[in-house]
Amino acid sequence: MRLPRLFSDGMVLQQRLPIPVWGWSAPNQAIRVTLAGHGADTVANARGMWMVKLPSLAAEPYLGQALDLVVQGDATATIHDVTIGEVWLCSGQSNMEWPLACSADAGRHLAAAEIADLRLFTVARAGATSPQDDVQEDACWSRSDAESAARFSAVAWHFGVELQRALKVPIGLIHSSWAGTPAESWMSRAALNCDHATRPILDRVPASLPKADSPAYAKQLATWEAKARHQDPGNTGVRKKWHLSSFDDDGWSVMELPQPWQRAGLASEGAVWFRRTVDLPAEWQDQALELSLGPIDHFDTVYVNGERIGGIEPEVADPRMVPRCYHIPATAVTKRTLTLAIRVFNRGGVGGFTGAADLMWLRPEHSAKKTAKRKPATAKKSKAAAKEVALAGAWRYGVELALDPHAAVPPPPLHTTHHHVPATLNNAMIQPLVPYAMRGVIWYQGENNVERAEQYRTLLSALIRDWRLAWGQGEFPFGIVQLAGFGAQPTEPGASTWAELREAQALAGEINRVGMVTAIDVGDVHDIHPRDKHTVGTRLAAWARATVHQQAVPWTGPRFNTMTVAGNEAHLTFTASALRTRDGKSPRAFAIAGRDRRFVWAETKLTGTTVTLRHPQIATPVAVRYAWADHPDVNLVDDSDLPALPFRTDDWPLSTAGQR
Fold first, then answer.
1. Half-sphere CA count of 554, side-chain side, radius 13 A
2. For residue 514, which of 559, 561, 560, 468 has the smallest C-alpha distance?
3. What domains does the chain contain, in order, with CATH numbers?
4. HEC letters along 356-382
5. Residue 292 forms beta bridges with which residues?
């Protein structure tokens, strides 16, 4: 007898809904399932498949209890430590997948990550050409602690923490996401095929694709990587003796870490070395140490006193999401100082140390298992009593190899189960979860669809219908994160594919039991992955608390209500009890246009809940747009500090119209 991997020790079952339990056994085998004194019986079909539905249970009678789910057939399977509570599916692309350990204030959050009633389940990355009956091996439930939370979705974890704190019942989070994926990969072929707006997505996939492990695909991939990603030509810094303690780096510049080196003014990609000499407490001499550097983008080689102690090479699938932690042997700790020399190679995009300051530290290795209870290092600690030396701060750096950023990156070659092929992720990472009872879904995705933003209006609503139909639970709640800002903030108003995608997300938010929270104010100029995941997760939790559990909490910012024109002024009202700006200045990011449809930045005045716009060159305003840019500079909020939602008053053609 076999059960899906979702049914494992520590699982959370959805309260107040019938509980499906399914699996496989010998054909025609009698099956009995019991939980908390409730039972259900069935007989496996001719293929050995079976399913029962246990009655719905409330969480409250079982709080603090570890239940057993028992399945009896040709063998007996017992699932231990089962709880009843709220279950949510958390899906999307990289900003949903981004782990807690690689996010802002990671050390502080990991120190508080031990939460017995927050259970985590991650679906491994996989693609398939047809619907699968189970997820990949090694998937299992785990209680939230410093180790499990570190590698779990940061947005999902913050969402779960806030929800558990508010509802005081067990929370189960099923995380199924993959960086760099378009929405169509998460949908069934049937859903894509039933609408003329999405059918071209299927039509453009070649009729014949190579398999992932074929020589033909290996050749295509190598050709693409040579064009799309910088290749490391080799470590020339070692030949220059940059790794040695004796090297004189006084002529090098200084950079505050952690931060991407683009933020510090280095525009190039390629290889950069970072060096720092650390004074150690006397009692650390001849002890093995643990070195934590947080995540690094992309690859690193770490030297201590001239000896290589570790690194991450290109074989690692997604090094951006891997916090670096290295062992320094006692044989290297023979003096009161250590010289750290770190070579970082960036193959494209953001480069350097991209994690939280409180994840950069050095400490004796015997204290490594105390992570969950440790306090972040502070500069006020005396070195003599230090249990940890903070490494955030000034480092010297030298550029070994400066490479120009790629102007345009071509799309990768496809294989039969590639994560860009329509339906592949639905087949391997969503279908195996059906029909596990859950409260709803949170969804953070869209960056890979911005060039087809108009189509996304149809695509996202079709995905929601597709999943609701698959689960058969009716219109379960579906929470959307509106994309954060990315890139340089505009000097003049103009077209924006990101703004058009956000509008598509807002339109989906009008579907019954669908909600949208915005991340418009937490963007990053240099990085498409803003590190503030706490704000996003807590806003999603506020949406769920307010709309699903009817708790009186604010969850959405001011929404545009009406526009009236009087002379050369446009008067905008918003659905908010109060408006203000975070910096006390006039509202920004408002653009105004006349009959010529040419937008210019508006002069603005805030009075109560009305924003008045004008421009000396526009006699009669015709249209207004707010936060209509890839990365708008916004400051308008309500009295709960929630940002106003982007909008436009016109219905003029979009720049992505017709892109399929």
1. 15
2. 468
3. 12-198+421-547 (3.40.50.1110), 253-403 (2.60.120.260), 560-644 (no CATH)
4. CHHHCEEEEHHHHHHHHHCCCCCCCCC
5. 325, 361
At 544-577, the pLDDT tens digits run: 999 999 999 999 999 999 999 999 999 999 999 9
Q: Which structure tokens are listed for 226?
A: 């040579």
Give the full edge-to-edge strand order of the sheet including 393-403: 253-257, 393-403, 269-279, 337-346, 299-304, 307-312
Q: Structure tokens of 408? A: 């345009």
3-state helix, strand, coil in the chain (%, to 5): 25, 30, 45
φ, ψ at 59 (rounded to 5°): -75, -35
Dihedrals phi, psi of 645, to nearest 5 degrees: -85, 140
Q: Do strands 478-482 and 440-444 pair parallel, antiparallel, or not at all (unpaired)?
A: parallel
Q: Nearest CA to 657 among 414, 455, 436, 394?
A: 455
The dihedral sign for the CA sequence 175, 176, 180, 186:
negative
Q: Which helix (H) or strand (E) holds 607?
A: strand 603-607
SS3 letters across 513-529: CEEEEECCCCCECCCCC
What's residue 317's pLDDT?
Answer: 80
- Residue pair 571/591 in contact (Cβ under 8 Å)? The answer is no
Contacts of 84 (CB under 8 A, 6+ apart): 12, 13, 14, 15, 36, 57, 58, 59, 62, 67, 169, 170
Do the beta carbons of residue 72 and residue 32 sit within 8 Å? yes
- Sign of the Cα pseudo-torsion (437, 440, 446, 447, in order): negative
In whole angstroms, what is the distance from residue 542 CA to residue 166 CA?
A: 10
Q: pLDDT by residue (tens digit) across 79-130?
A: 999 999 999 999 999 999 999 999 999 999 999 999 999 999 999 999 999 9
Specify the DSSP class assigned to residue 62.
Answer: G
From the centroid of its chain, how far is CA 394?
Answer: 29
Identify residue 74 by its one-letter amino acid code. D
Cα separation, 524 vs 484, in Å, equals: 8
Task: Give the separation between CA 275 and CA 272, rounded to whole angstroms.
Answer: 10
Q: Are 173 and 90 in contact (CB under 8 A)?
A: yes
Cβ contact 51:29 at 8 Å: no
Rounded distance between C-alpha atoms, residue 498 and residue 214, angstroms: 36
